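Researcher: Checking consistency across runs. Here is UPF0173 metal-dependent hydrolase C437_08953 again:
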Amino acid sequence: MELTWHGHSTWHVTVDDTELLIDPFFDNPHTDTDPEELDPDYVLLTHGHADHIGDVDRYEGSGLVATPEIVEYCEDNFGDFDAVGGMGMNLGGTVEIDDAFVTMHRADHTNGMDTSYGTSGGMPGGFIISDTKPTQVSDEESTTFYHAGDTGLMTEMRDVIGPFLEPDAAAVPVGDHFTMGPMQAAIAVDWLDVDHAFPMHYDTFPPIEIDTQDFVNEVAGTGSDAEVHVLDGDETFEL
């Protein structure tokens, strides 16, 4: 599995021959990628805020993995998409999309769309992406990546996502103000019991500018064995 961070919360994930693009928003200081360069098989949207769906219109015709509310909003405003299941998915569900299995889990955040924030996209989410179907039987051969979306710290990371969905790596928001900051994000990493942790959702706007070393220090302070990778924009990590 290849993980490429394009700044903010935008990740390009390759599972065998399947390409996924999560939360496309290339108007951020950490990327030089032209969104037209990418041709994902599926676009995954955690929620409907503009800094997560800002470039979704570039990928009309791709598969769309999102809640039914966000699918309808995108189709009404940005064109035709091949929504998974014809209508999207929802929290707790797992879908098989080519070589990947995608499970949607809740995120503690808000989900208004448009500048008026008068349109609700339902509960925001995060995605657990694996090359095998999640079961109650632990599978040490599987590779699993958790994109936490925009979220605060929540006990589901400790009680559900970590022990039952077993991510090997997690991308967690660290910018504070709108999401977790370094301290709570570090606790999330510890609870998830992952081997690799990636900070995201920082330095895009003044309110979320941070020193990422604070996150590194906080993870170490929890006693977690996770290795923190502060990626450069457009950098790829092989999981």
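Researcher: Does this match what you'd expect to see?
Model: One thing to look at in this run: DSSP finds five helices and 16 strands in the chain.
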